[in-house]
Amino acid sequence: MSLILNPTASPALSPIAAMDAAHSVHPHTNLRRHLEQGPSIITRGDGIYVEDEAGQRYLEGAAGLWCASLGFGNARLGAVAAKVMTEIGYYHNFRSASTPAAAELSAKLASFAPPGMDKVLLQCSGSEANDTALKLVWYHWAGQGQPQRRKIISRLGAYHGTGAVTACLTAKANFHTGFGLPFDGFLYTGMPYHYRHAHPGEDEQAFSSRLAAELEAMIEREGPETIAAFWAEPVMGSGGAVVPPAGYFDKIQAVLRKYDILLVADEVICGFGRTGEMWGSETYGMTPDLICSAKSLSAAMVPISAVLIGERVFNGMMAQTDRLGSFAHGYTYGGHPMACAVAHEVLTIYEEMDLIGHVKSVEPLFLAGLAGLSDREYVGDASGVGLIGAVEIVTDRATKAMADAALMARIDAATRARGLIVRLVGNRVALSPPQIISAAEVQEMFERLGLALDEVFGAVR
Ligand code: PMP
């Protein structure tokens, strides 16, 4: 029996939508509005399109949650999943147990990894990968006789997950307010977003130098011997698809090296071609000690994530288990054979389709599409890399006054009415289409977005 009665749900809801409204608690959702208005139910998908229960088709310009790299619906991956489900269904990876699927995925993922990162720890979600990476950082430092290195520095606007600890790495106020977070020991340095945070007249290189100097000042203030790691997405995703300014990671890494601070690259969004190279770390010349990977790892078809571990941290982990007896960390579903087999097939598909070659071939059109929007009256910033980018909506280009929630809601409605799903982050309209998107589909996506923006801007003018 339903404990939460839903007398306010619209009578127009379909039976499925009414069921969902009554019983399903949705993340990142106004719970009261959901009870009253119900969900949008997506029923099927093919290629880069999805369809709702009314039969309306949408070009999925956000790849779901920046993740459906191969688009929607995939019989080949379905057959792989069914085979593993029939043959074994489940086995774990605790205490040296393994399956062919887990072994093969680990080896293949290591072959995709940047040089020197050939150890793979399998998890189930991006949050788990970040949580695990954080524990590995602490484990490593304790093993090096520096257990006081506990503090973590991330960047304002960062998103690294939503667990109790990963929400502390995440530096967005709504993830903290209401939950009594963050815990002590999480520090936040400046957001590398030139359009909004550069001083007047400060070019990208000068802005990057200032951010690096601010990081160094923070490290000195806190005590370098207390800082364990610096956490960064190569391109900030949920912060608004924010591409770092020129020189940023070179300058930041110089500071990290000076104080012997570990670098963790959260590649949950950026991994697997999103930025035009296999890893965002490659695009920006980062040499991380750990990489967190998820989403496109399995084309989002099954929940799986991985931490790629560099030699330095792995040696620290070895020293710890020599001392303690075993590595006391892991999840029931880590290395799940069905998830591993599907992810392995996804990586095989990436090789067959020449994922990076394909992304590079459509990237110029994608960037031209963004640039083409930048002359609109209400577009401030328009920037991207690979197949990720955004336009920022302002009501006054001179003052950069941000569009409010009501205006952004109109943009959301106008894009949906034109059969396009985008990701709104504050006053930014972000795009990260499936990496299989064709040149013609890139054009179609920008045509639809341009028309939707023109319609809304025309109405507010
Ligand atoms: N890191 C980044 C960069 C992300 O974008 C996300 C999810 N959007 C996460 C971590 C968390 O992943 P998950 O939702 O799978 O826990």
TrEMBL record:
What is the protein name for this chain?
Answer: Aminotransferase class III-fold pyridoxal phosphate-dependent enzyme
Which keywords accompany this UniProt record? Aminotransferase, Pyridoxal phosphate, Transferase
List the GO molecular function terms.
adenosylmethionine-8-amino-7-oxononanoate transaminase activity; pyridoxal phosphate binding
The highest taxon in the source lineage is Bacteria
Transferase recorded as keyword:
yes
Indicate whether Transcription appears among the record's keywords. Answer: no
Family affiliation: Belongs to the class-III pyridoxal-phosphate-dependent aminotransferase family.
- Cofactor requirements of the protein: pyridoxal 5'-phosphate
Q: Which Pfam families match?
A: Aminotran_3
GO biological process annotations for this chain's record? biotin biosynthetic process; gamma-aminobutyric acid metabolic process
Q: Which organism is it from?
A: Xylophilus rhododendri
**Gene3D superfamilies given for it?**
Aspartate Aminotransferase, domain 1, Type I PLP-dependent aspartate aminotransferase-like (Major domain)
